[in-house]
Design brief:
InterPro entries: Ala_racemase, Ala_racemase_N, PLP-binding_barrel. Its cofactor is pyridoxal 5'-phosphate. Keywords: Isomerase, Pyridoxal phosphate. The chain has 375 residues and is an alpha/beta fold. It folds into two domains: 220 residues, TIM Barrel (Alpha-Beta Barrel); 110 residues, Elongation Factor Tu (Ef-tu), domain 3 (Beta Barrel), CATH 2.40.30. The protein is 27% helix and 24% strand. It has ten helices and 18 strands. The strands form three sheets. Strands 1, 12, 13, 14, 15, 16, 17 and 18 form an eight-stranded mixed sheet that branches. Strands 8-7-6-5-4-3-2-9 form an eight-stranded parallel sheet. Helix 5 links the parallel strand 5 and strand 6. Helix 1 crosses helix 2, helix 4 crosses helix 5 and helix 6 crosses helix 7. It starts with a strand and ends in a 22-residue tail after the last strand. 43% of the residues are buried.
Length: 375
């Protein structure tokens, strides 16, 4: 089997989606499944929809095109503000988009009129994380003008937290969004039908609060794909954390000194070398994958193994007492950053299935080859 590769378990993705949909539905909150970390995979989107997602969201029009070409006919939300150069594609291929700029709304309006259609828009509100969003004191005015633009239909408000600055989406923030919804409805004279309160970081709040206010949608990516929540990267009870596994092949296995020798400068990626004080020897393996393909800091090695370092094309691992040799495959778990980069790499094969195809985690030897020094 080709390596490196990402093994994708679609059953796990459906399970995670179904579990979150079931927990949020009694609170009146829909789930929009976010496919951007999976590069708009139609298979992943279909797994989310089988789990009950009300629609699919993505940040890039290239991914949206892949979704549509792959047969995704569900509601698709563009979750990054449209580029002016792509507004015609946005109107053609998406059902609604998240927006912050009047000039973009003008361009979307013209594109929709030109296509003799209507495009739904949601205005994003800045509530403190300092990524995208309209200032609170400008929301009502922009909403009024958006509602008047031909070819557009203002359907809601939204916000995004815990991405750039880690600001927590708590009750105070969500109450503020609810209050703005009511102000906008009073100004435009119509009820808003989409109040998208945030992303997977909102789950702690949404599942604990007794008052979700007007929040009726969450845009869930990491929690569905990895089974974790972004605020503390903790596994979510009842969700599977093994939907994605990165498999890499070993190209060298040798016992080497724990310490380098010779004068030292910066590493290949401009980092100052770490001053490792471990003594003795390390049973070290190299996997044929590197920083060009994955964020090594986001890899979860098998028990008893430790990721030591990475260059562009080499991942250096302390394999401990595992019985591995050249040609063996090693399976890693991934964090969100590692998943995104691995999915983006053209050198990593993506294999979607409904059953696990990854190799078993190598077993430690019953008798170690070397003393476990410096560990």
């Amino acid at each position: 089997m080709t390596a490196p590769r990402l093994d994708v378990d679609l059953v796990a993705i459906t399970h995670n989606t179904r579990t979150l949909v079931a927990r949020l539905a009694p609170r009146g909150i829909r789930v929009t499944g976010i496919s951007k970390a999976a590069l708009g995979s139609p298979g992943v989107a279909a797994a989310m929809l089988r789990g009950g997602a009300s629609g699919i969201g993505d940040a890039r029009m290239e991914n949206v095109a892949r979704l549509r070409a792959g047969g995704t006919d569900a509601t698709v939300m563009l979750i990054r503000s449209p580029m002016l150069s792509q507004v015609d594609d946005v109107v053609r291929d998406t059902d609604l988009s998240l927006n912050t700029e009047a000039s973009v709304l003008d361009a979307l309006s013209a594109a929709a009129v030109g296509r003799r259609t209507t495009h739904d828009v949601v205005l994003m509100v800045e509530l403190g994380d300092l990524r995208e969003g309209v200032p609170v004191d400008e929301v009502v005015d922009l909403a009024v003008t958006a509602a008047r633009r031909p070819g557009l239909r203002l359907v809601g408000l939204g916000t995004n937290l815990a991405c750039r600055s880690g600001v927590v989406p708590d009750q105070t923030k969500m109450d503020e969004l609810t209050g703005l919804v009511e102000k906008v409805e009073g100004a435009v004279g119509d009820r808003l039908t989409v109040v998208t309160g945030g992303n997977s970081a909102n789950l702690d709040w949404a599942l604990a609060t007794s008052d979700v206010g007007r929040i009726d949608d969450l845009r869930l990516g990491e929690s569905i794909l990895l089974g974790t929540e972004p605020l503390h990267r903790r596994p979510i009870d009842g969700l599977r954390t093994d939907a994605f596994t990165l498999v890499a092949e070993l190209i060298e296995v040798k016992t080497k000194p724990a310490q380098p020798w010779g004068a030292r400068g910066q590493t290949a990626f401009g980092h100052e070398p770490e001053r490792d004080v471990r003594p003795g020897l390390v049973r070290q393996a190299i996997a044929a994958i590197g920083r060009q393909d994955v964020d090594p800091d986001g890899l979860v090695a098998p028990p008893g193994m430790v990721v030591l370092a990475a260059s562009s094309d080499h991942l250096v691992i302390d394999v401990g007492d595992h019985d591995v040799t050249v040609g063996d495959e090693v399976a890693f778990g991934l964090g969100y950053g590692a998943l995104v980069r691995a999915m983006t790499s053209p050198f990593v094969t993506k294999q979607e299935s409904v059953s696990r195809t990854t190799p078993p985690i190598p077993r430690p030897r019953s008798a170690p080859r070397r003393p476990a020094v410096g560990r």
